[in-house]
């Protein structure tokens, strides 16, 4: 009887697997917080994408060509048309013709009467004073002037026309200009830059 009871007990014990004390520990955390790292990297990449490559310190020296038209836009550009500086004003040639003599204008940026900006891209000035489009301008980056001074002398050079032409010579001087990138990045500086060109005529 006692032997049978012992065998029965051993048989019952055999129905259960032995438990290793180490097996009772919680599984190790294999998550190295890749999600957080991924989010951080994504944010960093996003910030980097919002910044554009800054302008070369001597960027203004590359603007070898100059032009202008209407009343008024004046500009200077790199020969391959991948970098350009623009100035836009309103009614200066007409005012000079009304005065009958050379007329000076002075603005301190920012001023709602004028705009100064720089563009980088392709075919930037192709249609600025041209009504025939062979190439479509592509702008990849823009810098907008936020401070500095703009001095312009406008001298009439011909007869005003009833269709709105006021032929004149525009002599522009930009001084102490700080241009901020439109979509993040380092500002560009322009200590002094002159543009001298015919204005007041209409493209077409």
Strand content: 35-45%
User: What's the tally of helices?
Assistant: 3
Q: State the secondary-structure class.
A: alpha+beta
Average pLDDT figure: 82
The value of Rg in angstroms is: 36 Å
What gross morphology would you assign? Answer: globular
Query: What percent of residues adopt helix (DSSP H or I)?
Result: 10-25%
Low-confidence stretches: 1-50
Note the gap between the termini. Answer: 122 Å
Multimeric organization:
single chain
Question: How can the largest sheet be summarized?
Answer: 8 strands, antiparallel
- How would you spell out the order of helices and strands? HHEEEHEEEEE
Number of strands: 8
Gist of the model:
By secondary structure, the protein is an alpha+beta fold.
